[in-house]
Amino acid sequence: ETGVTQTPRHLVMGMTNKKSLKCEQHLGHNAMYWYKQSAKKPLELMFVYNFKEQTENNSVPSRFSPECPNSSHLFLHLHTLQPEDSALYLCASSQGTENQPQHFGDGTRLSIL
Amino acid sequence: GNSVTQMEGPVTLSEEAFLTINCTYTATGYPSLFWYVQYPGEGLQLLLKATKADDKGSNKGFEATYRKETTSFHLEKGSVQVSDSAVYFCEVISSGSARQLTFGSGTQLTVLP
To answer: DSSP string spanning chain A?
Structure first.
């Protein structure tokens, strides 16, 4: 139990579907992150939220749309994805963003048909 | 920007062998350094950290020393176990106005009985 819960654990969707990934942290942290983990590639930081405000968007395509309604919840809304978007999507949280380690969820395995 | 160069895997060792996984980095200022471990089907878990030069992080028999002069943070363990089989990631976080979070590409370790 890491304190960061991601749902669903697995998701299969067509390229025209719209779906959302959910992340919830029970650690009292104020920063949350989305990462993309693909085989044979380094972890890619997608978005960072600090106190519900987006502080980083690392050139992520607009078909990925994050939402952070409060410091405990983070969503990643998906629409018209491409096959190359198939990956493990990891959510993490930390107590602030300055030199603090991140606590990760177990990820959502996304497959695009 | 920051960069992290991590020893390429996969690494295969026999039980009780000595482990070294190299990590070198480039970063501005005085970054904090982390090692994470990822077991199959799970997210990343913090293994150890060091926040200033010459600090030694340690946990579960693993150690790494923050070497500013060589910009390195090599992970070591004196006697590995089968249960240490996992993927290991080195991360560098630089703070301040040039804040960046950067992961290495990960090193797959397999320990054989």
So the answer is: --SEEEE-SEEEE-TT-EEEEEEEE-S--SEEEEEEE-TTS--EEEEEEETTEEEEE-S--TTEEEEEEETTEEEEEEES--GGG-EEEEEEEESSSSS---EE---EEEEE-
DSSP for residue A90: E
Find out whether A75 and A93 touch, Cβ atoms under 8 Å. no
B contact set with A (CB within 8 A): 31-32, 34, 36, 41-46, 49, 51, 89, 93, 95, 99, 101, 103-106
Digit-coded pLDDT (tens) for B5-50: 998 889 999 999 999 999 999 988 889 999 999 999 899 999 999 9
SS3 of residue A43 by DSSP: coil
Nearest to A34 by CA among A85, A63, A74: A74
Paired with B102 in beta bridges are B92
Q: Which residues pair with A34 in a beta bridge?
A: A47, A91
